[in-house]
Amino acid sequence: MVRPRPGVDDRARRFRAQLGLPVDRPVVLAGHQAQMWHPGILAKALAQAAAARSLGAGGAWVVVDQDDHDPWTIRYPVRTAEGSLEVRQWRVGGEHATGPEHVPIANGPAARPSGIPALERGERFGAPGVGEGLDAIRAAIGRHAGERSAARQIGAAMQELLRPIAPDMATVFATDLARTEVFAQVVEAIGRDPAAAVGAYNRATRAHPGARIAPLRADGDAELPLWHIPAKAGAARRRVPASMLGSIPVEELAPRALLMTGVLRMAGCEMFVHGLGGAGGDGSSGYDAITTAWFREWLGADLAPTATVSATLRLNLEPPGSGARPTPEQIARARWTAHAARHRPRMLGDAAAEAQREEALATLRRLRGKRDAPSKRSKLEAYRGLHKTLEAARARRPAELARYESEAAAAAAYREEAEIIADRTWAWPLYEAGQIAELRRAIDAAFGL
Question: Is the pLDDT reported for residue 140 higher than 90?
Answer without folding.
Answer: yes
